[in-house]
Amino acid sequence: xxxxxxxxxxxxxxxxxxxxxxxxxxxxxxxxxxxxxxxxxxxxxxxxxxxxxxxxxxxxxxxxxxxxxxxxxxxxxxxxxxxxxxxxxxxxxxxxxxxxxxxxxxxxxxxxxxxxxxxxxxxxxxxxxxxxxxxxxxxxxxxxxxxxxxxxxxxxxxxxxxxxxxxxxxxxxxxxxxxxxxxxxxxxxxxxxxxxxxxxxxxxxxxxxxxxxxxxxxxxxxxxxxxxxxxxxxxxxxxxxxxxxxxxxxxxxxxxxxxxxxxxxxxxxxxxxxxxxxxxxxxxxxxxxxxxxxxxxxxxxxxxxxxxxxxxxxxxxxxxxxxxxxxxxxxxxxxxxxxxxxxxxxxxxxxxxxxxxxxxxxxxxxxxxxxxxxxxxxxxxxxxxxxxxxxxxxxxxxxxxxxxxxxxxxxxxxxxxxxxxxxxxxxxxxxxxxxxxxxx
Length: 440
Description:
Alkaline Phosphatase, subunit A; eight-stranded mixed β-sheet; 2 domains; 11 helices; alpha/beta; two-stranded antiparallel ribbon
């Protein structure tokens, strides 16, 4: 056993604090005549954001009355009307629990983002997407939280959760700090320190077979996770040794100030605006192609300024107003969330790329934790996508699929993003049925 432990310590020591720093600004001369692809014909890279909000909307008040194109939002989603032609809305779908314990606020997100409710070891959808499209960027994915904590729904396995960054200033430093490099400089000289780290990692890889032979089955699984991460790191070091491809719309945003990360919804919204701008610029500069935004957690403790009553408390304790048919304070919080989702989409749309925008080559997938927070229902869970993925998705469509698994949306999104996957999910949520109404 001492032989194994010593070898592990050597591996960890050789890995050290290796980091990758590649900036990818770009000029119009690198694009085709209308800015829809690189000058050589390669398509602009697709981008994906998982955008999560806890506690959802009230049944009957968010769904459109008509199916197909030309729908009108229900009253609780009317804030999204300016972006309606870019939005697909999915109603009627549910999370199947099978014989498993119903997690009050956890089963819905597990089904939507991991494809099943039985096993939290399943990777989340954003990480499956990152495996397919995130290997050639400085950051494989970026995760942020707007309500002040590091809680995350992004995971590679039960033990490999990607913590969220709660500070826009810290995220700015990671993306556009001293490690951000300008590839438009006259000369490009690979960093000698990176070359050394790259060489060290190659040496570590060669130790794998010998080390694995000294381990039991469970440790071999952990070791495989370790080497998977190592291989990803090595690929990023390879990128840093090459002159990066430029991207036309890249510009470093102003640093700005942030609100105090916390549970007052005004602060969460202010920081969300900063995160939206930073992630949009990170996409435009090719720093990443995948992001996960948590606007509020499943047990949302967001509150109004000066109040101790939280969004979550209102969903269970507030009476239904007999005049309007829903909980008035809950609707107020829900509208704040919808307005923030609109702001995120607009941040992507604000970046022009030829005659299109960053949103045109993106998919933003909205999800929440249940169909009705008041009763912890996992039926009729609100779901949406925003963006066309460079024409791979039709938009402006309402799809109603009562009783179908919510995992259908994730499978459809992954196929639109080019993930080579035909079936996804576990047990009753396992599906090979894409939503053909929106696939181009």
